[in-house]
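ok trying this again, last paste got cut off
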Amino acid sequence: MRRRKTKSRPTCSSREENIILTINNDLKILDMPDTDWEHYMTKRPKPTFAERLKEIETKVNEWKRHKHYHRHGLKKCEVAEELGISTSDLSNYVNTVEGMNFSAWLNSLRVEEAQRLMKSHPELSIFDIGYKVGHPHPNTFKKAFITITGQTPDEWRKENIETEKDND
């Protein structure tokens, strides 16, 4: 019968205290600095899924508040790194809470912002608005806008700006 090779972990180099860790049921003594033993000897409870989602939601809301989604070519790994979370945590959050995948969520944020800009700055062109919200190419902006609203940006603008004028 063959024995499995186990990877040995590097040891910490300290001169003062030792701590005993169990790795693969083998006792190992590692040199550790003079610190609080209880910190190493007690396990901290892992946060629940709901607690973790709440923590991520706080970070995401802050990220959205600063409108970081306006940057062109934004990738999931970049957003996760900015938030200080893993890409899988970000994906789980977007899928669970927002109910869509990352790129659809990013496009929805951008389209919502484009709608606000169309209402507040009717003098801006559709191209300028698309560029400001993170879509450097008019065709990708138009596709994303149609996917989310069911209308082209021009159709949406005409319908919503005229509706507001009629209500005034």
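PB: full thing came through this time. Confidence is low (pLDDT under 50) at residues 8-24.
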